[in-house]
Amino acid sequence: MDIGLDGGFSEPVLQAQSSFRAIMDALANPGTIRKFADLASAHGPLTAELVSTLLTLSDQDAPIWLSEKLRQTPGVEGFVAFHTGAPIVSVTGHAVFAFAEATDELPALDKFNLGTQEYPDRSTTIVLGVSAFAGGDELVIRGPGIKDQLKISPVGLPTDFVAQWAANRALFPRGVDLLLVGDGAVMGLPRSTRIAEGH
Amino acid sequence: MTTTAQYNFAYLDEQTKRMIRRAILKAIAIPGYQVPFSSREMPMPYGWGTGGVQVTASIIGPDDVLKVIDQGADDTTNAVSIRAFFAKVAQVATTTHTGEATIIQTRHRIPERALGQGQILVYQVPIPEPLRFLEPRETETRKMHALEEYGLMHVKLYEDIARHGRIATTYAYPVKVEGRYVMDPSPTPKFDNPKMHMSEALQLFGAGREHRIYAVPPHTEVVSLDFEDHPFAIQHFEEPCALCGAEQVYLDEVILDDRGGHMYVCSDTDNCEERRAAGHVGAQGVEGAE
């Protein structure tokens, strides 16, 4: 069934602003959980958090990649085109943003655009849906934005996440940035974050 | 009811805000790296803080409280007009008190009072590239940053020592962020450099004419470049503030007459006013003055 075009922000200017502040604060303070003040409604397989992030950051200048399941759901591409105008790309390396509702829909991190040494800002930002921010394997993170260290345990990261993230961190200043969204909130893991312990 | 046309909230159109917001996120993820962005014409000339204004306009919300300072002062032309601009186009509350502000836009100073968690400091930056006066070609400076090739900057500081016996750079003193990128802290006095290190506040830098945005997240290492035998040191003032008696703050010299009379007063006007309100009086201050 087609999910249609309804939805989106009812107050585009203010909702985009408050959502952006949540995302910015999350990325500036990695590992902390930042609530979206005013979420857009969920839309088919797109959770409310994914919709809000999509509407806040995407437009015609920022090509996006969608997971297989999102792309296969009738109406998702139309919804994205109508509300953002963002080109949808099938090549992960061409995406400015990548959206996946669950980890099993996510290719390996190094399949995305990692940026170049001259322009590391051209890398992909991955927006991944998680079911909860607590209850998963405990990771100890350090890096810019984190006072000393922080323990996080989001549910729904890739099984080999620690190894993938170490490889991503080793590329610095290149590498992808990760936004985990779910439970009405967002957690940021910029490429500068190190996982100190965990399994 | 009037039907006067209104600007979009915070002046910028939404597509421009998204573009700037994307640049800010990348700047935060790569501390000290200058992210190119498509700077817009603003209703003020380049050199008056268009970069800082665009950054502020892209992050500010109705609940924010804005403070704007120009060389530490809340009451100078640039600060007053930018504060009035946002009061008009974003209807936000404004303040002169550092402690009350959620966003502080600054030209060339960091407030004396330590910034706290959740506060955002937005710098107006004229020349974002610390290597620009050493190497005019953008293609080359970009490669130097890519290769982490900062020898030239050390040569410059060394030449200072060879010529003057000390590092003579007193403002826009280059720093290294998180051990990777050499960054221009904007033309703040080097006195303020230590405040950037491990600050609890998020620091965002906007250079409008030069089309660059960069950032230092909270709790991030910011180290002033120096040599083992010529360590970095901040300015020291012989006398305290003449009005409030503050020590360990940055002072401005005020000329009083044409016979060499002068006084030194706090550059941070809010800090000075708060101290005077709390009863501190300097050598030339007046007891109980407003």
Task: Tell me what the structure shows.
Chain A has five helices and ten strands. With 199 residues, chain A is of the alpha/beta class. Chain A has one domain: Rossmann fold. In chain A, the strands form two sheets. Chain A has a seven-stranded mixed β-sheet. A three-stranded antiparallel β-sheet of chain A has the order 7-6-10. In chain A, helix 1 packs across helix 2. In chain B, the strands form three sheets. Chain B has a seven-stranded mixed β-sheet. A three-stranded antiparallel β-sheet of chain B has the order 7-6-10. Chain B has a two-stranded antiparallel ribbon with strand order 11-12. Chain B is built from seven helices and twelve strands. The longest helix of chain B has 16 residues. In chain B, strand 2, helix 3 and strand 3 form a beta-alpha-beta unit. In chain B, helix 1 packs across helix 2. The model of chain B has no long low-confidence stretch (mean pLDDT 95). Chain B starts with 13 loop residues before the first helix and ends in a 13-residue tail after the last helix. In chain B, 26% of the residues lie in helices and 17% in strands. The chains are: A alpha/beta (199), B alpha/beta (290). At the A-B interface, helix 1 of A face helix 1, strand 1 and helix 4 of B.
